[in-house]
């Protein structure tokens, strides 16, 4: 069998050449990293859960008309996606103070923000993904002002959708990160949601208990990460109700 061509390997995913032009295969690894890969581990089952959860969110976005890269699931760890030209920004939306915002401003985690705040980090591992302003984004040519308007609009639509989906299962969406890519239809360019949406890239707190159900469990040594992600998947109906990750993820189609 011919080996697939690896296009790119990141910390949590690998991209392979897809079966048709304009597609990639996105493979979800079990690797967990934090603090720019200074902390690393392998969490059995994480890749399977994130593959399925990202599919769930991307399909939901498709259903409400928010364009994104997802085409179809291939297997437990792989999905077919549209090839995009990634804009080198992490687009972060915050509803409540947490993480780097709390640190930067000395604001208690969980404080409600006056409105959703959209911010950008420049995607660069060597520099530790520094926060950048719109001025930087436009001046350095990563995106123009029209692109930024479209990115904010996409990010806020994703925020409204995800906040509602999570709240319906008793989870508060504190903040999250998306990436945005360009696709071309002839000379016409469109921006679409790319990369992944999963508990790796969101902060998710149980509404009642405040229990953390996201990658902060790993970052802050708060318990079993796969357990937390399984709980999210179970509540969303992506995993059968009685399953724990110890029985290994069994997915519902
Ligand atoms: O660390 P910080 O508070 O800036 O993170 C904000 C949100 O963006 C969190 O949900 C975090 O998981 C996500 N994020 C990410 N990848 C990064 C940085 C942040 O998914 N490289």
TrEMBL record:
- Gene Ontology molecular-function annotations: ATP binding; phosphoribosylaminoimidazolesuccinocarboxamide synthase activity
One matching Pfam family is SAICAR_synt
- Which EC number(s) does UniProt give? 6.3.2.6
Q: What processes in GO biological process is this protein linked to?
A: 'de novo' IMP biosynthetic process; cobalamin biosynthetic process
Q: What residue range is the signal peptide? A: none
User: Domain SAICAR synthetase/ADE2 N-terminal, which positions?
Assistant: 6-235
Q: What class of enzyme is it?
A: ligase
Catalyzed reactions per annotation: 5-amino-1-(5-phospho-D-ribosyl)imidazole-4-carboxylate + L-aspartate + ATP = (2S)-2-[5-amino-1-(5-phospho-beta-D-ribosyl)imidazole-4-carboxamido]succinate + ADP + phosphate + 2 H(+)
Its UniProt pathway annotation is:
Purine metabolism; IMP biosynthesis via de novo pathway; 5-amino-1-(5-phospho-D-ribosyl)imidazole-4-carboxamide from 5-amino-1-(5-phospho-D-ribosyl)imidazole-4-carboxylate: step 1/2
What GO cellular component is one of the record's annotations?
cytosol
Cite the Gene3D superfamilies for this sequence.
Answer: ATP-grasp fold, B domain (3.30.470.20), Phosphorylase Kinase, domain 1 (3.30.200.20)
Keywords assigned: ATP-binding, Ligase, Nucleotide-binding, Purine biosynthesis
InterPro entries, per the entry = SAICAR_synt/ADE2_N, SAICAR_synt_PurC, SAICAR_synth, SAICAR_synthetase, SAICAR_synthetase_CS
- NCBIfam families, sorted: purC
Give the similarity note. Answer: Belongs to the SAICAR synthetase family.
Would you tell me the protein name for this molecule? Answer: Phosphoribosylaminoimidazole-succinocarboxamide synthase
Encoding gene, per UniProt annotation: purC
């Amino acid at each position: 069998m011919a080996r697939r061509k690896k296009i790119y390997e990141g910390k949590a995913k690998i991209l392979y050449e897809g079966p048709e032009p304009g597609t990639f295969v996105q493979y979800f690894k079990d690797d967990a990293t934090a603090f720019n890969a200074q902390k690393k581990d392998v969490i059995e089952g994480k890749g399977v859960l994130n593959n399925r959860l990202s599919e769930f969110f991307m399909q939901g976005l498709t259903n409400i008309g928010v364009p994104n890269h997802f085409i179809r699931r291939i297997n437990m760890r792989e999905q077919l996606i549209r090839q995009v030209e990634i804009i080198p920004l992490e687009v972060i939306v915050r509803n409540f103070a947490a993480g780097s915002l709390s640190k930067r401003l000395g604001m208690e985690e969980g404080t409600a923000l006056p409105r959703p705040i959209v911010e950008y980090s420049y995607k660069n591992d060597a520099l530790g993904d520094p926060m950048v302003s719109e001025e930087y984004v436009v001046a350095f040519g990563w995106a123009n002002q029209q692109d930024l308007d479209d990115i904010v609009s996409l990010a806020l639509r994703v925020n409204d959708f995800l906040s509602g989906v999570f709240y319906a299962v008793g989870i508060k969406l504190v903040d999250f990160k998306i990436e945005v890519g360009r696709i071309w239809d002839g000379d016409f360019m469109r921006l679409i949601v790319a990369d992944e949406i999963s508990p790796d890239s969101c902060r998710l707190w149980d509404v009642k208990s405040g229990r953390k159900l996201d990658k902060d469990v790993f970052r802050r040594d708060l318990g079993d990460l796969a357990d937390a992600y399984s709980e999210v998947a179970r509540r969303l109906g992506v995993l059968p109700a009685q399953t724990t990750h110890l029985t290994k993820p069994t997915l519902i189609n």
